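Review form for a predicted model. The reviewer records the input and the model, then writes brief findings.
Reviewer: anonymous (R2)
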Amino acid sequence: CGAMWRLNSRVDTTKVRALNEEVPESCKQLFRSWEERLDFSKCCSSDDDDPDLIIHVPFTSDVKLKSISIIGGEDGSSPSKLKVFLNREDIDFTNVNDIPATQEWELVEDIHGHMEYNTK
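Model under review:
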C-alpha cells in the first residue's frame, strides 16, 4: 500500500489544520513517508478532557484513496471512530454531527500500522 504510492506528497501540509489538537500544528506531521509511519515522536493528540479531533486535509491534486491506515497509541489512547467528509472545509464541532459523513469506520487499536480500512 504505502510503499507503492506516496499520498503524503499530495497533501498540502501547509494548509492541514486541526481542531482540538493538544500541540498546535502537530497535525501537519501526520503525513509522512511509509518508512517513517511508526515514528511516534510525530503525533497529533487531543486534550485529555475532550478526545475528539477534527483534521482538515487538503490535497494539491485530485486523489482516490483506496484505503486508510490509522496508527494510534496503546492502552485506549487510539482513536475508536473515523468519519470522513469529502470536499468540506466548513466542518467543526458545531455541525459535525448534523452533516452526514461520506464514510465512517469503527477503528481497532493499531500501533503497528497493520490495519487498513477500505474506502468506498
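Findings: The chain is about 0% helix and 15% strand.
Further findings: Residues 91 and 97 are 9 Å apart (CA to CA).
Recommendation: see findings above.
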